[in-house]
Design goal:
Layout: E1 5-9, H1 16-30, E2 37-41, H2 47-54, E3 60-63, H3 80-85, E4 88-93, H4 96-102, H5 106-118, E5 122-127, H6 131-135, H7 139-150, E6 163-166, H8 180-198, H9 201-204, E7 206-210, H10 218-222, E8 229-232, H11 239-246
Parallel strand pairs: 1-2, 1-8, 2-3, 3-4, 4-5, 5-6, 6-7, 7-8
Helix pairs in contact: 1-2, 1-11, 5-7, 7-8
Bound molecules: 2-phosphoglycolic acid.
Length: 250
C-alpha cells in the first residue's frame, strides 16, 4: 500500500556534464520501473540542468536542502519557492551531515519541512542515531526526539506527504549497513511513533532506510515490513548501480 521510494543523494558530487551523462545513461535503465518512485537529488547548481534532462520522464527531482524563509537577506541560501519553480518534487532536510557539520536543530528542520509543504515540495526528513548513542542504548530516545521535533509543525492532513529517512549515522558512507533486523526494529519504532502522532495517516508515511545501501543489500532491506525505500549516497553516483537499487525486486 505504500509505494516504494528510491532516492539518490548525490551530496557534493558531479559537474553539469557528469550529471547529464548520468541521466542519459540512467533513464533507459529504469524506463520499466513503473511501480516505484525514483528521485535524484543533485547539488543546487545542477538542479536546473538535471531537471531539464529528466523532463518527460517519471524520475523526480529533489534538492538536498532548503532555507525556511520565503525570501530575504540570507546569503547563500535557497528558498522553497525557488525549488518549486525549478520543478523539485522533493527536498531532503535534516540530513545527519547537516545536523553534525552545520549545527541544524530539530526546530530548524521542522521549519524547513513547513516551508516545503507550503510550496508542495515534499520533505524527506532524515533522522538517525550516532554510534555512541546506539552503544549507550539511547537509539530510541534520539529517534523519538528527532522525529517529534522535526515533524512538530506537520498537520495530520499533510502527514502522508512527508517521507521519513532513517539513517543510522554509523552506517552512512562507512560500508557498514545496518542488518535488516536492526533497520526493521528502528523502522517499526518510527512507524509506531508516527501512528501515535498522526493516527491512520502515520501508516501512509513512507520510511526510507539510508546508510551504505548497495545493489547487494537493497533487496533484503526492502523485504522488511516497515522499510518503504532507500536514500542512497555513494551507490547512487553510477547509473548502473543506482538502477540496480531501483530494481530491487528483480
Ligand atoms: P551512503 O549515504 O549511501 O553513502 O552511506 C547515505 C546518505 O547519507 O544519505
Amino acid at each position: 500500500m505504500r509505494r516504494p521510494i528510491l532516492a539518490a543523494n548525490w551530496k557534493m558530487h558531479k559537474t553539469k556534464g557528469e550529471a547529464r551523462a548520468f541521466v542519459e545513461a540512467f533513464l533507459p535503465l529504469v524506463a520499466d520501473a513503473d511501480s516505484v518512485d525514483i528521485v535524484l537529488a543533485p547539488p543546487f547548481p545542477l538542479l536546473d540542468c538535471v531537471g531539464q534532462a529528466l523532463a518527460g520522464s517519471a524520475v523526480a527531482l529533489a534538492s538536498q536542502n532548503v532555507h525556511p524563509a520565503e525570501q530575504g537577506a540570507f546569503t547563500g541560501e535557497v528558498a522553497a519557492g525557488m525549488l518549486a519553480d525549478l520543478g523539485c518534487r522533493y527536498a531532503i532536510v535534516g540530513h545527519s551531515e547537516r545536523r553534525a557539520l552545520f549545527g541544524e536543530s530539530d526546530a530548524f528542520v521542522a521549519s524547513k519541512a513547513t516551508a516545503l509543504l507550503a510550496r508542495d515540495v515534499l520533505p524527506i526528513v532524515c533522522i538517525g542515531e550516532t554510534l555512541e548513542e546506539r552503544e549507550s542504548d539511547r537509539t530510541f530516545d534520539v529517534l523519538r526526539t528527532q522525529l517529534d521535533g522535526s515533524l512538530i509543525a506537520v498537520p495530520a492532513e499533510r502527514a502522508a506527504d512527508v517521507v521519513v529517512a532513517y539513517e543510522p549515522v554509523w552506517a552512512i558512507g562507512t560500508g557498514r549497513t545496518a542488518t535488516p533486523e536492526i533497520a526493521q526494529e528502528a523502522h517499526a519504532f518510527v512507524r509506531a511513533r508516527l501512528r501515535e502522532r498522526f493516527g491512520e495517516a502515520g501508516e501512509r508515511i513512507r520510511i526510507q532506510y539510508g546508510g551504505s545501501v548497495k545493489p547487494e543489500n537493497v533487496r533484503v532491506l526492502m523485504s522488511q515490513p516497515d522499510i518503504d525505500g532507500a536514500l542512497v549516497g555513494g551507490a547512487s553516483l553510477e547509473p548502473e548501480s543506482f538502477s540496480k537499487i531501483v530494481h530491487f525486486e528483480v
